[in-house]
Amino acid sequence: MAKENVEKNNAEAAMVKMEPLLSQLEYKCLGRGAALLFDYDGTLTPIVKSPELAVLSQDMRGLLKRLTKRYPVAIITGRSLADIKKLVGLKKIYYAGNHGFEISGPKIQLMSPQAEHVYPTISKLCTELKNGLGHIHGVFVEDKGLTASVHYRRVAQKELHDLKNIFWKMAKPHVNSAKIKVTRGKKVFEIRPNIKWNKGKAIIWIIDVIDPKKELTPIYLGDDRTDEDGFLALKDRGLTVLVSERRRKSNAKFLLKNVAEVKIFLKKLIDGVNHAYTRTPRSNAVE
Ligand SMILES: [Mg+2]
Question: Among candidates 257, 208, 231, which has minimal Cα distance to 39?
């Protein structure tokens, strides 16, 4: 089959699967308005070998820019605030870095004071991990200030056992003293202050700022375990979308397979909105 036909068929198949999501969209969002919230890695960009390679495509940046003209848009990520702002480079977006410990956007700025207290512990642990794991090829200890990540996607299988042993030996005392907590992501250990703050709480915090009257439908798209907090937080309030090639147990209501399907969904959202605005301006105003 010719390449363009395969692509066309794939796109059509994707649309069929997206139908339930899109009908919810038309019902809930096109009339009332929506707030769009995204994870970054694996959701807006494909998962890559090293975090610095996860560059936002021009296509996706263009779509995000068009979306900001219609909706409040937020990006919530495990990356540092400075990093995500640089990678996306768009104004009018609410950015939440370090799993939501740092938030900045049009007219808001938040840094969790509790999290700041843990900063010296995390910084010290990062130095220990860099030294202790230095002999393992491909490991990357990323000190992001308020949180840290240990990436091991590029580490050879035979060295994983060694890596995990050393990691836990160094991290365990701080976990036991309840200063930090460690969560697992896709080939990454996430080190965070042990305080009751996560992507879900950050999402609710942002939505309360941008939509205090609770008029909009929040839509959250994410691909990894930390996104489950976000899906759970919006369980009764919004549309939640897991981006995953495989079906798996999740708190999200809908599934998109990959970043390509996310793009189709966003295009549809932009086109659908344009259509709704041209066709039924009055009903939108009444709602
Ligand atoms: Mg992700």
Answer: 231
**224 CB neighbour count, 10 Å cutoff:** 22
The answer to whether 39 is a known catalytic residue is yes
- Give the Cα separation of 180 and 38 in Å (integer): 25
The confidence score (pLDDT) of residue 285 equals: 29
- The two three-digit tokens of residue 24, written as one number: 């919810």
The strand pair at 188-193 and 140-143 is best described as unpaired
* Inter-axis angle of helices 113-132 and 160-176, nearest 10: 140
Of 3.60.21.10, 3.40.980.10, 3.30.70.1020, 3.30.230.10, the CATH number of 114-193 is 3.30.70.1020
- Mean pLDDT per 10-residue interval, the chain, length 287 residues: 52 59 65 88 90 90 95 94 95 93 84 79 95 96 92 96 97 94 94 90 91 91 94 92 90 92 89 48 31
| Cα–ligand 1 centroid distance for 224 (angstroms) | 5
* Ligand 1 center from residue 285 Cα (angstroms): 36
User: 39, 41, 223, 224: which is the annotated catalytic residue?
Assistant: 39
* Residue written as token pair 């919004």: 238
Q: How far does the centroid of ligand 1 lie from the alpha carbon of residue 40, in Å?
A: 6
CB 127 within 8 A of CB 202: no
* Ligand 1 centroid from CA 41, angstroms: 4
User: Does domain 3-112+197-286 fall into CATH 3.40.50.1000?
Assistant: yes
